[in-house]
Amino acid sequence: MSLANQRVAYFNGKIVPESEVLIPFRDRGVKYGDAVFDTTRTFGHKLFKVGEHIDRLYRSLRYLRIDPGLTPSEFGRITEEIAERNLPLIGKDEDYWVTQRVTRGIDASDRGAWPDHTGPTVIVETLPLPLKARAKLYRDGIEVVTPSVRRTAPDMISPRAKTHNYLNMVVADLEVVAQNPSALAVLLDTNGNLAEGKGSNIFIVREGVIYTPVERYVLPGISRETVFDLAKNMGIGLVEKDIDLFDAYTAEECFISSTSFCVCPVASVNGARIGDGKVPGPVTHRIMRAYVDFVGFDWVRQYLDQIDA
Amino acid sequence: MSLANQRVAYFNGKIVPESEVLIPFRDRGVKYGDAVFDTTRTFGHKLFKVGEHIDRLYRSLRYLRIDPGLTPSEFGRITEEIAERNLPLIGKDEDYWVTQRVTRGIDASDRGAWPDHTGPTVIVETLPLPLKARAKLYRDGIEVVTPSVRRTAPDMISPRAKTHNYLNMVVADLEVVAQNPSALAVLLDTNGNLAEGKGSNIFIVREGVIYTPVERYVLPGISRETVFDLAKNMGIGLVEKDIDLFDAYTAEECFISSTSFCVCPVASVNGARIGDGKVPGPVTHRIMRAYVDFVGFDWVRQYLDQIDA
Amino acid sequence: MSLANQRVAYFNGKIVPESEVLIPFRDRGVKYGDAVFDTTRTFGHKLFKVGEHIDRLYRSLRYLRIDPGLTPSEFGRITEEIAERNLPLIGKDEDYWVTQRVTRGIDASDRGAWPDHTGPTVIVETLPLPLKARAKLYRDGIEVVTPSVRRTAPDMISPRAKTHNYLNMVVADLEVVAQNPSALAVLLDTNGNLAEGKGSNIFIVREGVIYTPVERYVLPGISRETVFDLAKNMGIGLVEKDIDLFDAYTAEECFISSTSFCVCPVASVNGARIGDGKVPGPVTHRIMRAYVDFVGFDWVRQYLDQIDA
Amino acid sequence: MSLANQRVAYFNGKIVPESEVLIPFRDRGVKYGDAVFDTTRTFGHKLFKVGEHIDRLYRSLRYLRIDPGLTPSEFGRITEEIAERNLPLIGKDEDYWVTQRVTRGIDASDRGAWPDHTGPTVIVETLPLPLKARAKLYRDGIEVVTPSVRRTAPDMISPRAKTHNYLNMVVADLEVVAQNPSALAVLLDTNGNLAEGKGSNIFIVREGVIYTPVERYVLPGISRETVFDLAKNMGIGLVEKDIDLFDAYTAEECFISSTSFCVCPVASVNGARIGDGKVPGPVTHRIMRAYVDFVGFDWVRQYLDQIDA
Amino acid sequence: MSLANQRVAYFNGKIVPESEVLIPFRDRGVKYGDAVFDTTRTFGHKLFKVGEHIDRLYRSLRYLRIDPGLTPSEFGRITEEIAERNLPLIGKDEDYWVTQRVTRGIDASDRGAWPDHTGPTVIVETLPLPLKARAKLYRDGIEVVTPSVRRTAPDMISPRAKTHNYLNMVVADLEVVAQNPSALAVLLDTNGNLAEGKGSNIFIVREGVIYTPVERYVLPGISRETVFDLAKNMGIGLVEKDIDLFDAYTAEECFISSTSFCVCPVASVNGARIGDGKVPGPVTHRIMRAYVDFVGFDWVRQYLDQIDA
Amino acid sequence: MSLANQRVAYFNGKIVPESEVLIPFRDRGVKYGDAVFDTTRTFGHKLFKVGEHIDRLYRSLRYLRIDPGLTPSEFGRITEEIAERNLPLIGKDEDYWVTQRVTRGIDASDRGAWPDHTGPTVIVETLPLPLKARAKLYRDGIEVVTPSVRRTAPDMISPRAKTHNYLNMVVADLEVVAQNPSALAVLLDTNGNLAEGKGSNIFIVREGVIYTPVERYVLPGISRETVFDLAKNMGIGLVEKDIDLFDAYTAEECFISSTSFCVCPVASVNGARIGDGKVPGPVTHRIMRAYVDFVGFDWVRQYLDQIDA
After folding, report:
1. Cβ contact (<8 Å) for E25 and F1?
2. Is the overall model pTM greater than 0.80, yes or no?
3. Which top CATH class is E3-128?
4. Chain C interface residues facing chain B, Cβ-Cβ under 8 Å?
5. Does domain B3-129 have CATH number 3.40.30.10?
6. What is the ipTM of this complex?
């Protein structure tokens, strides 16, 4: 990628080419993962629920007592600007993740080489969605596998803050992917209930009602919340409760939600086919269609078009 | 600090001024804390147990399945060189932390602006010990406080790997320091036993025998191991077992060990004075003297000299 | 206090000066804390919800299989009488706690010196509320701190019975008060969720809805129930659910309820300021006003008047 | 019992008839069970291991941060004197429990009727052992039953402090005795291992080695420690470890130890006969004989003599 | 029983006398309990909710990934036929359990002596209800006792699948029945809440509302579901939630449901009398009457008639 | 297999062809898995440690309170006879599993068709070892995978009894084998430590010392015990302790033991190569050779010879 065509990012007050977003190794974000982030996406080059994502970013900041030095609305404006500046670099059929990141910065005692870096480190950046890599999942469904590693318990570090501490997810992924490279790891919580995958929430359907794990053990996804709203509008029951592998194996349908996936059907859990094996199931299909309508963009088509692209 | 006087660090194959050790924000070390490190120190400008620290670094790497692209002996040589290059920059009465860090690097899909960064990110760096800031603790003893947050459980992410995921420790510190800025947070494990503080192990003494938490719930410190060896040589019993707040409150002595602290007495746990309140207690004192002899350098004096410096 | 002016109490069938309420050291209430109690208060010298408190006393008795030898209505009448007899001893601007206590009495084998003491020990007594000591909390808000000690789990001894076994609370208080003498200890339950403080329930507010821990892990306060009723009447949502430190740190408001506090705003949890730091927040304020209206007495004013008294 | 023949007790600095040991109902020992105690016994009218019991009392005091206002040696002298004064009141074939108790006293705000009671409440007292009531257990063995209630977990309130908070034991006893009035409740700990009964430790024997639960979950009995010493002297292996119902049901022998029981064989656990059903088993028998020799008094005979007395 | 009068059963495609339903010892159903079952009953010789039971059977099959080789409707027809063939063998006042069982069959490597047994083993069978043995329970109420053994946790093997692995229940029963042969063991779940007895669900009533444990920890009984429907029809509140011994001891009424019991009042839990001790309590009585009406058969009378039969 | 060549088995007092060992479907062994078993093997047609296996069988029987109606020595004689009768049916290079099984028999109320079957059901039987199917594992090492399902906790049903309740293992296997048909499932215990696989114990080696999970969470294998003895004889340290995935991933070697496997090297755990990836590692190799010497038969050769057989 030539410098001329490089994406730009917001970095501590300036807009710079991505290659210049370089973090001092003594930043607590590097040393400790002492940082939070949040990510929205564009649909047909339009940003989705920026305000909701920034609100959640501030809850993560609050949990870690990090002062970002910006107001939510400043964050909103920066987010819009970065998206706008970078959108011309991708095709019409592509879209971006747009991400805010805030680290606690450099400890006073560590600032030797960066004496002026007294506040947090703030980044807003974009990344094209991996449409092609995921396209088949919309046709065939995701294979969910639960690793033996349990999701970090809320009395240790809350899964509800979206932070740069992802090793619990990383070791879970390593475990699962070593057996099945195309599987998605969804961790169980400390009680053995389904919790979440890296950046994704899980839902099952039984007798026409949708169930998803309670918020305490998972990051409350904005897409998850969108599913809540869509279900409500369509009169489909949706209940937050503890759900376990018995629920999953006997479910009629299963799907995951995430910022980038939006909603994607699950074909199997631990190799056990869900329902009759056809994806998406009818309720999942309705949610997906409503999601497409709600955002005014056919992201299902966007994904599927990449299968043989 | 002028560039001329700046410390240097090893960074992906080169030795550069610290200010040039800058990590692409898309490095997994930044985004996920997907990285490990290990830290030794110098005593009177001489490195301590480099081999043991590098062995532990490799166990952390192995746990996370990161290939550092260097052999242990290469790491040893780099460590020695970096220490040697930086020692002239500090006074005779000062010493360094010397640290190796390895991140998993940048995911293939994220390498846009850094197309050649295909391997791990490797750093070896030094930092002067905070002697003055800690000096009083050797005179007065540490105030240990146990936060309500529990140490991450081993079936989520093992505390025995020394990683860049420190938020569990960070939230514990925030909790404790908000009530008492001079206290040291020592977390309880998932069963309510004493575990560890950020980079420090805890020991108690009862009837002349030393007890310290079992390895499963804590990082097995090299200084902790040094204490094991010293105790053995002096014929002092030392037992690894689950110890809890009852043990701490009824202990005759208590101390912590860490790379930089070596051994430092604890004056109180949750405000309850340990033993008769004089620090260090007799067993702690013997361990401290033996430690000084073992490393051939009076680090106790080094700390205490800073009290009114 | 001269004997003439002494408060009286009900003690095993008689009304006597408090100084004569003396319990044989072999009473199981003394040896084992094998006893229950319940406490209401007066508002402007009028008793509050005596019936509800006595009902709860009987649930505690039932849990421990203690027969008090009195009917609930007898207990009610005694309570009224004791309050009436003692109210003349305090000022118009003061009020009482009024407490029933029942121990299991003396084991048959231990009755040597008290051969006739064959039944339970029953006390009904009063104590002036500590208005002055708490007054500032209504102006500044309470500083809540969560100790490392966990609230006793329900499969060991249920927190829902109000008994004379308070050591779990006592060790929690010792831990917290040693770091911050003005803080209120609120313990986490065995799963790491917020439970309760000594005699107080905790509530948070988020997006206008009030949340409070489920009954299983806490004493279901009569004031807590009063808050439920007031919220319902005002159309404010109130939900019992597991709430944790993430909830607390990201809450807009936080308050506690108790018989004597009624409702008192919380300013911070573990040093993290709640909301924008102004107390009481708007929802808390509405609940407090409604509580004042409901009891027909301005206890907020009563407390605040003591600040410089 | 006429006053002339009444036992005396130490009570806050004086020696008084037991009937005068009366505790103000506002004492924290009454209201909260905020008190500790320890109990030794006499063998043939001679006190046993007073020093060890007082040391343990001080560990309990330390855990609760109660200052008894007396030195251990003062406590020892008082204990001796109280025993001496009361021994003439019982027969040659009888013996005493001798107990120290310390409460935290009365809170400053509660001292209205007892203005001078500013320190702890201290009692030393005696009680004849229930020899007759237990005699058959030495012939037939104890029937141990494990209730569904779990022993209080150490991160709530440590079972290693001997306090006046016994409700966890009381509800366990109620559960067991309702089904079998002659059974002894031995609770399981929070992990489902055998813990302890009210004042008694449990041991099993397998292949000639004795096993008993680790100290963390139980009060470390002085009699338990005596068994340790006796086993060591006789070359019988004795190991502290987690033992569960599988261990109990497949044990060759089982026994309990306590101050008053010393050592008493267990005939069955949850109705499952231990070993071949003959009590005491050979290892238990050796321990019992060694215990008799060690204390120089045949307490087995003392108990058995009461069967038809 | 002469062969001529023997009940018949469906066994792998054939209807045979019960005595010919013999399972090869190498069948996984025998070796591992690797099998599921479900059981309905007749009321006045009419089958009850066959479809619901078969649906549940299929959820159990799905959980264990056993293919029964039959469709649900085939199972339904077989069930009807077996009931019909056997009903003439019992009196008018008697009724049957009718049970479907499916094992995974014989592993390929174990089929030596049964080379043709390549599929699952399928049985449908009947057994007369033990009316007489249970009759008194309807008059006096059940004595429920909670054993120390905990119900298997859902992240080990889900209690919601009805399988041939009953040892958790068996050891619980052994524990309880050894103390009280007429008691019913109801296990606590891994959190210490009430779970279920062997084939029975438990309910309590407080202030007119019925509570029963959540489905995650128990087999969701068809009779339990029937109680849900009846309560709803009568406008009686019924809530699924965690209930514990405090709830049980302070309940006004308690009852159990099961296929054969339908609804039977509980008189005591761990020896603590429920409510005022009269059975059935008013809410239980209403549910029982409604149940009788719903099935069109007075099973209460059927049981009670057996008391002196 | 013709009847003439069929293996025989002991079945309730008689020796019969295997095809006649058929269990009434009402046997509790079938309905509930209410049965225990134990299995030894032959080495070069000689039985191994029959006495130890039968002793363990009796501990399992004792745990479940099943009376087998035979003495251990009678069981021993039957075992020998059955082995002897069946050995001629296999080749010199083959060997047998020899298994005792005891069910609790048929409940009195269920004996209709089998009125005389009043005692337990007892079987002793043989099965050729699956040498060929496992041969490659000795060359390549086993791939161990830990499922998300946890091993049944000891306070639910003890893993130390060898029973017919294997569904916990079965669901674990289903989970693992769906991702990798050649992997061996080794479950974690309720604390997240390594426990055991179906019939196999696991060991790791670090710095020349062997570690294996403590007995409480696993069946104490006779082969495991044999490894203990061999290690002791060779002066190799062997320690029972909690070991977790960190231990496994950083181990130098790993192996499993079982009756049929004896000792077999593990190549990887969750896809992470153990040590340098060569199997067997040096310590494992020494144990294997010592095992071969101890039993006087080269079972390694026996397995390896089958690779291309």
Report:
1. no
2. yes
3. alpha beta
4. 145-150, 174-176, 178-180, 183, 188, 192, 245, 270-272
5. no
6. 0.96
